[in-house]
Amino acid sequence: MIRITSKLLIAAALSLAMLALPTASQAQEEPDTAQLNAEEIVAAMQPGWNLGNSLDAMCCGPGDDETAWGNPRVDSTFFNDIKAEGFNSVRIPVSWGNHTGPAPDYTVEPETMERVQEIVDFALEADLYVMINTHHDSWQWITNLAQPEQHDEVMAQYTATWTQIADTFKDYPQELMFESVNEVGFDETWSPGTEKDHELMAELNSSFHEIVRGSGGNNDDRLLVLPTLHTGADQGDMDALASEIEALDDPMLAATTHNYSFWPFSVNVAGYPSYNEEVQNLLVENFQSQVDTFVSKGIPVIIGEYGLLDNYDNKVERGETLKFFEHFGYLARTSGITTMWWDNGTHFDRFKREWRDQEQFDYISSAWTTRSGTASSDLVFVDASEKVKDQSVTLNLNGLEFQDVRFGNVTLKPQRDYTLDGTTLTIKAKVLERILGDREIGTTAQLKIRFSDGMPWKLNVISSEDPVLEDASGTNESLLIPAAFNGDQLATMESVYADGTGAGYHDWTTFPEFWDDFRPDYEDGTIQLTKRYLDSLKDGEQVSLTFHFWSGQTLEYTVTRDGSVVTGVA
Description:
By secondary structure, this protein is α/β, with parallel strands linked by helices. It contains 16 helices and 28 strands.
């Protein structure tokens, strides 16, 4: 007599179950019976993240260029960490051109295709939606579509590339989607598109659509993502894409754009150092126009890249940066648009697997579910040479309620330590005096303003005096202006000729670009006028500069370039 224990029964059941389970390849081949529609897939992708500067990097042989732009190779555990940070999708930009053979076959190197496939598998196994594309191919060779003598060659390579991608991934599940091309344009100005530009863009998108849909397998109804010209949000370009999508008459299509905020704010040029009401309204209009053009018509939208432009940590004041990300997240959430944060390794340290700027990420991730309160500034300057006075900021409650003000672990007392009149928060002089101690110039103390939800707003209280500049001499390579900042911080610089016209690299504005044209060095005590700025000045003509500081102080200065010799006078 055979005695069957409960453990044996369980083991037998598990064995039968394992035999019934499909392999990974079988799972990809079998259609998903719970097929989501385009709007449901795009909604499920929120929020998203970009694996930038990895498979889109261009340098070396197969596999080597993945690390060429400073990031490590992706391993099997990487996307588990991305998923753990709260992301539901990943965009994997891929540049194919450097790994593609000659005409007429334009064969993608097998090693490259296999590596892309391996990384896509890693991401899918981490339960992420995945989007792959043709990335820097856009400016490497696809842009040549506008040249009549190269048109057919470009289309032949584009067709061959997408034919191979579509065939490789045709049995992958619906969690994988294809984006036809990244930020392609047909001239160097990036101006709103002409009728010819839109015809070329439609040719790329329709060819991509035909190739993928004709490749069989799960590509029959895979979500396809179509960009506007430049992947921008100019109304004419969006209207052109909306017409393309209508003509294709395919319910499994999504539109994609990119957003790096209003360019003058994103790089601090033309007198836009702050995220002011004008810049905020432009972002509101940007989202609303995409809702009106696409979402309201049942076409889901993916902002495949967003952020501020490179080097913004040096160009845009910290609090103004956080206000942008907070507002951006709110508009995405309330408009139903899915967003994918551009990260080329600047944000998530792929070696240490941690955020380089945790607070910034906290603002971004908080916005996925709620708002955060902010204020008119995160900087309060207290004159170190005068009697301390009360200081006020205006709160941006963003639909929340004010909770309290804290200094370290101490909660300040209302009326005694601060007052709140409507949205005007006033910190009493005695509190400022206490937290600044001996009030040595440059001393900084931090208060936290807390609201009913979201992130606390950090208010940096700084002991300062008026900044001072000195005369300087140099060459057109660089002029270093001695500067005693005295705790203050530079916001922007105004630069004009005697007739009032703008002087500098961007002659259409009187405010040059922060960092690229002028840059403060608070540690060494200088303001550098860069070679780019100095080379652009008219020889022998005096330029009047006005330095604007965040405290509200302004300083006048003149600079003259005489050949290669430059002189500055305070």
